[in-house]
Amino acid sequence: MQSTETQLRDRRTAMIREAVPDDAVRLLHYLDEVTGETDFLAMGPGELNWPEEKERQFIEDHHRADNKLLLVAEIEGQIAGILGYTGDDRPRLRHTGEFGITISRAFWGLGLGTALMQRMIAWARTSGIVRKIGMRVRTDNERALSLYDRFGFVREGVVTRQFAVAGRFHDAYLMGLEIDP
Ligand SMILES: CC(C)(COP(=O)(O)OP(=O)(O)OC[C@H]1O[C@@H](n2cnc3c(N)ncnc32)[C@H](O)[C@@H]1OP(=O)(O)O)[C@@H](O)C(=O)NCCC(=O)NCCS
Question: Does any ligand 1 atom lie closer than 6 A to the CB of residue 111?
Fold first, then answer.
C-alpha cells in the first residue's frame, strides 16, 4: 500500500502509511503517551506492557493478513495518529472485524481522524474480503461519534458496562458500517 499525503486544517501535511516492523519502538512510545491523554480508549496508561518483539509481530501480522490493517499518520516525522483494523480469523467471520483509532491530543480536530478513516474504508472496499467494519465507542465520546456518524456508521445497539474506568462503568454503542465493493 502506498503512502498518501493529506493537508490538515492548520495547513500542515500528514503522511499516512502502513506500519512497518521498524516502527515498533516508536509505536509503543506513542501508545504509552496517548493512553494517558484520554479516558475513551480500551487501554489505560502503562497497560501496554508488550516487549518490542511482540509489537513487531503484531505489525507483521497486520501487514500479511488480507483482513487486517495498521495505519500510521505522521506529521513532520512525528507519529500523530494510528488506526488498526483487525479482522476475525475464523472462516465464517473473516469478513468482519473491529477497528480502533487514536490521535495525539495536540492534533485533535485537524482532520487527521477523518483522513485515517477514509483510508481504512477505501482499503476495505478493495480488500476483497472485508464486508463489515465494527467498533465499540463510549456513548459519551461526542467527538468520535461525530466522526463515525459522518462516515455512515450505524448505532446497532448499546453494550452496557463495556468500559470500567476509575471505578465507574460506561456503556458503549456497538457501531457498524457495511462494506460493498
Ligand atoms: C476521536 C478522534 C479519533 C477524532 O480524531 P480527530 O483527528 O480529532 O478527528 P477530525 O478532526 O477528523 O474530526 C473530528 C470531528 O469531531 C468534531 N468535534 C470536535 N469536537 C467535538 C465535540 N466536543 N463534540 C462533538 N464533535 C466534536 C469536529 O468538528 C470534527 O467534525 P467536522 O470535521 O465535521 O467538523 C480523536 O479525537 C481521538 O483520538 N480521541 C481520543 C481517542 C478516542 O476517543 N478514540 C476513539 C475510540 S472509539
Answer: yes
Domains of the chain in start order, with CATH, are 4-129 (3.40.630.30)
Cβ of 38 below 6 Å from ligand 1: yes
The response to whether residue 103 sits with its C-beta less than 6 Å from ligand 1 reads: yes
State the distance from the centre of ligand 1 to the C-alpha of 103, rounded, in angstroms.
9
Pocket flag, ligand 1, residue 151 (CB < 6 Å)? no
Report DSSP letters for the chain, one per residue.
---EEEE-TTS-EEEEEE--GGGHHHHHHHHHHHTTT-S-SSS-TT-----HHHHHHHHHHHHH-TTEEEEEEEETTEEEEEEEEEE-SSTTTTTEEEEEEEE-GGGTTSSHHHHHHHHHHHHHHHSSS--EEEEEEETT-HHHHHHHHHTT-EEEEEEEEEEEETTEEEEEEEEEEE---
The answer on pLDDT for 49 being more than 90 is no
Global pTM reads 0.95
